[in-house]
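Q: Hi! Curious about what YqaE/Pmp3 family membrane protein looks like structurally. Here's the sequence.
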Amino acid sequence: MLLAILLPFLSFMVRGKIITGIVCLILQITVIGWLPAAIWAVLSLNNARADKRNEKLIRAVKENQR
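A: Let's find out. The predicted structure is below.
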């Protein structure tokens, strides 16, 4: 989370989203664009964690139905 706030583009790069990371870096280079880039990275990270959590729950429900 700290990485997403301090270096938003690097947060995308670490998760394998290279093109998104480059776009975020371009946005982050501008002083005004750094805040939206940081917010974008944090929201993206939270969405990725929520997707993982949902997939785990779906797998658990499917296993219980068998």
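A: A fun detail: Residues 34-65 form the longest helix (32 residues).
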